[in-house]
């Protein structure tokens, strides 16, 4: 469960192709969040989910939730 | 009468206004509908062409025309204070212009674009040339003309930005230009990018990074620039890298338009929350968002706006006519990628299908130049 104190600042559907890629899209958004806010990312495959978790952890972000949603993978990240 | 207001007369706003005019000509001529474009400026700049200016491939004079000359004669155009939108109020279906007039609409299309926020990175504006800025593109042309060798750093400050493939193009055109001038062996080219690799889509990154390797281009990534020292010409990153350079070419941080923030309708970077399939602003079904203005994870590029314009124009027309039909955007994007000053490749993709660039060729370079030249007479006028 997400801590009740965290507010989802933005939900990002990253299941499709985009030029910045999932990490590029997330990097731009995560830099903007304030304490108490989180970003929910929807990812289309497990490999991308692992990449996102590894990247976020290395950047110092916290992974507060990982879950399956049908064929997709949902990751909630905060600072 | 149904009034459609388009806020912004850049590439996205112009194409969508013209496409609506071509889709509902009878309604416009009978006075059953009206399309109005609002913009502070009466000039239209073809920004994608700015990338070619520093390499002497593009005459900058050809990149600017009068907006009125590009718009369909059935589209009303207000500029100056009458066209400068100071507030967008979706709850009350109005926009307010700088002359104090409140304009009501039945359908609103927000096309206010992306803008440079140089000051986010201290020193960037003083030390870095950018083809993303018209005047800076001209200055870079002069700087390259006088360049006699050294280290050139190419930097992307932040993602997303407009023309996502353009940093790779600038790098490869620079490499080719220096080879043709006999300066390549006196120059180190360093490409710096905020995430691993040189581009966000893996299938494209894998092809393009091989070309970089073949050309001897050094890549430092991830590299998230924190500041630039204009005096000592050093660029620093969050990752602790320090790159000394003789010439820097970069993409400054991008944000959405100020009016989006002033109106309280965007996120923290002034991108407007938008449904990725319907292109409608979230929670406002009679407001569409197009081009760079959206917060959709898709390319901020002219071709994206062109593809999106079909969906919005058709859905506005369907609603005015009450047909009940709906179109959805599939994430289509098409971008040429210059790999020199006489060769190019391209990417064509959508949400579901990743792109793999074909081998670079002169044919694609010719296609890129033609695509740019045809902008004024075909693309902007929504002929196809």
Strand order of the largest sheet of chain B: 5-2-1-9-19
**Mean pLDDT across all amino acids of chain A:** 93
Helix residue percentage of chain B: 25-40%
Beta percentage of chain B is 15-25%
Largest sheet of chain B: 5 strands, parallel
Contiguous runs where pLDDT drops below 50 for at least 5 residues of chain A? none
The outline of chain B comes out as globular
Can you walk me through this structure?
The complex is a heterodimer of chains A (79) and B (384). Chain A is of the alpha+beta class. Chain A is 30% helix and 37% strand. Chain A contains two helices and four strands, in the order βαβαββ. In chain A, strands 1-2-4-3 form a four-stranded mixed beta sheet, with helices on one face. Helix content of chain B is 29%, strand content 24%. A five-stranded parallel beta sheet of chain B has the order 5-2-1-9-19. Chain B has a four-stranded parallel beta sheet with strand order 13-12-11-17, with helices on one face. In chain B, strands 6-7-8 form a three-stranded antiparallel beta sheet. Chain B is built from ten helices and 21 strands. Chain B has 384 residues and is an alpha/beta fold. Classes of the chains: A alpha+beta (79), B alpha/beta (384). At the A-B interface, strand 1 and helix 1 of A face loops of B.
Question: Layout of helices and strands, plus pairs?
Answer:
The complex is a heterodimer of chains A (79) and B (384).
Chain A: E1 7-13, H1 21-30, E2 37-43, H2 46-59, E3 62-69, E4 72-78
Parallel strand pairs in A: 1-2
Antiparallel strand pairs in A: 2-4, 3-4
Chain B: E1 2-7, H1 11-23, H2 25-29, E2 33-38, E3 43-45, E4 64-66, H3 67-70, E5 76-78, E6 85-89, E7 94-97, E8 102-104, E9 107-110, E10 114-116, H4 124-127, H5 134-146, E11 150-156, H6 166-181, E12 187-192, H7 202-214, E13 218-220, E14 225-229, E15 234-237, E16 242-244, E17 247-251, E18 254-256, H8 258-263, E19 287-289, H9 302-321, E20 333-338, E21 344-349, H10 362-379
Helix pairs in contact in B: 1-9
């Amino acid at each position: 469960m997400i801590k009740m104190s965290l507010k989802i600042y933005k939900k990002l559907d990253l299941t499709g192709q985009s030029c910045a890629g999932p990490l590029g899209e997330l990097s731009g958004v995560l830099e903007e969040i304030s304490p108490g806010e989180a970003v929910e990312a929807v990812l289309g495959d497990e490999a991308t989910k692992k990449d996102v978790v590894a990247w976020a952890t290395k950047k110092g972000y916290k992974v507060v939730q990982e879950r399956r949603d049908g064929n997709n993978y949902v990751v909630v990240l905060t600072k | 009468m149904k009034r459609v207001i388009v806020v912004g007369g850049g590439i996205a706003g112009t194409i969508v206004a013209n496409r609506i005019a071509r889709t509902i000509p009878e309604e416009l001529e009978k006075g059953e509908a009206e399309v109005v474009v609002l913009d502070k400026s009466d000039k239209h700049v073809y920004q994608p062409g700015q990338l070619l200016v520093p390499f002497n491939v593009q005459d900058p004079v050809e990149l600017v025309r009068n907006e009125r000359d590009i718009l369909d004669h059935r589209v009303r155009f207000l500029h100056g204070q009458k066209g400068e939108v100071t507030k967008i109020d979706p709850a009350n279906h109005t926009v307010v212009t700088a002359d104090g007039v409140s304009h009501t609409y039945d359908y609103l299309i927000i096309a206010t674009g992306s803008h440079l926020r140089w000051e986010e990175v201290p020193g960037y504006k003083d030390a870095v040339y950018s083809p993303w800025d018209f005047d800076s593109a001209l200055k870079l042309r002069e700087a390259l003309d006088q360049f006699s060798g050294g280290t050139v750093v190419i930097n992307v400050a932040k993602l997303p930005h407009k023309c996502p493939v353009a940093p790779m193009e600038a790098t490869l055109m620079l490499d080719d230009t220096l080879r043709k001038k006999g300066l390549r062996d006196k120059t180190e080219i360093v490409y710096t990018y905020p995430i691993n690799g040189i581009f966000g889509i893996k299938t494209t990154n894998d092809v393009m990074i091989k070309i970089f390797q073949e050309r001897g281009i050094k890549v430092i990534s991830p590299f998230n620039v924190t500041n630039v020292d204009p005096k000592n010409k050093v660029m620093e990153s969050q990752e602790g890298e320090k790159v000394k350079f003789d010439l820097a070419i970069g993409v400054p941080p991008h944000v959405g338009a100020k009016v989006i923030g002033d109106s309280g309708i965007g996120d923290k970077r002034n991108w407007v929350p938008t449904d990725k399939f319907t292109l409608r602003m979230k929670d406002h079904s009679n407001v569409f968002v197009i081009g760079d203005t959206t917060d959709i994870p898709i390319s901020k590029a002219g071709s994206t706006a062109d593809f999106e314009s079909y969906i919005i124009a058709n859905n506005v027309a369907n609603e005015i006519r009450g047909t009940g039909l709906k179109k959805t955007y599939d994430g289509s994007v098409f971008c040429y990628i210059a790999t020199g000053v006489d060769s190019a490749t391209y990417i064509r993709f959508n949400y579901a299908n990743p792109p793999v660039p074909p081998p670079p060729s002169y044919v694609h370079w010719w296609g890129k130049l033609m695509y740019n030249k045809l902008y004024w007479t075909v693309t902007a006028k929504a002929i196809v």
